[in-house]
Specification:
42% helix; 250 residues; 3-stranded antiparallel beta sheet; alpha+beta
């Protein structure tokens, strides 16, 4: 699911699936904390009465139920809000609107839209993560409570109506710890960017955590600072400013 722009500039390492897997530039797996089929079955049995839409990651692919696509975008009303958020009508904004609509109806790179994840669960033994989205925030609250009672998992509240579940010990923060140790890099020399609460586990595991301007209010409240939005090239702008400051100091 890594976009071609990242692959083109030869990023050295990828922390994927909420930290469940770490890859190097060749695609080789350096670290894996996987869910087993029995784990997935326990999660599904606990949460299914709340009528979720499911997605599951395995073999570097996300299999996502069409109902989950609708829940995650919040239906037509929320989709309109997302489109309006990218106005005024710049060329870049139109591109974001087009991608938002395309992803809503057809899925994204590295994602396969399916009627049900059940056949995928039957066919595979190990999984990177499983996600579930709901019609209401109250249903999501109840699902989080049930999973906490179940125990043995890391549960990230992405948005008000969406959860992501990984194996115990699989978080972005712990994956960052592993990679820094692997590279011999000091934590103070690192920065992470995030836009939702599944990025919050990085806080305390990197030197500085920067929230995206288009991120959730919850993650922005926890961040060390906030950069510009996705449409405004917030990450690139922040990095350029830091490099200019560093040049000034030297």
């Amino acid at each position: 699911m890594m976009p071609h722009q990242l692959r083109r500039i030869s990023v050295d390492y990828y922390l994927c699936a909420n930290g469940a897997t770490v890859y190097d530039a060749t695609g080789a797996t350096l670290r894996s904390v996987a869910l087993q089929r029995d784990d997935i079955t326990r999660v599904i049995e606990a949460v299914s009465p709340l009528d979720p839409g499911w997605n599951v990651f395995c073999e570097s692919t996300c299999f996502i139920e069409r109902s989950a696509m609708s829940y995650m975008t919040g239906g037509v009303r929320d989709l309109r809000k997302k489109i309006r958020a990218h106005l005024p009508r710049s060329r870049k904004a139109f591109r974001v609107i087009f991608v938002t609509l395309k992803n809503h109806f057809f899925g994204e790179q590295g994602k396969r839209i399916v009627h049900s994840i059940n056949p995928i669960v039957v066919e595979h033994d190990e999984f990177e993560k499983i996600g579930c989205s709901f019609r209401t925030a109250e249903a999501c609250d109840e699902a989080a409570r049930r999973l906490e009672e179940l125990g043995g998992f890391e549960v990230a509240r992405v948005w008000a109506r969406e959860l992501e579940i990984t194996a115990a010990g699989a978080t972005k923060g712990l994956a960052a710890d592993w990679l820094l140790d692997h590279l011999g890099v000091e934590r103070e020399r690192t920065v992470a960017f995030g836009d939702s609460m599944n990025d919050a586990s990085l806080i305390g595991h990197v030197g500085r955590f920067v929230a995206m301007g288009n991120g959730s209010d919850e993650v922005k409240a926890l961040a060390d600072e906030v950069c510009g939005t996705l449409v405004a090239d917030g990450v690139a702008t922040w990095l350029e400013e830091q490099m200019e400051e560093a040049k000034g100091r030297s």
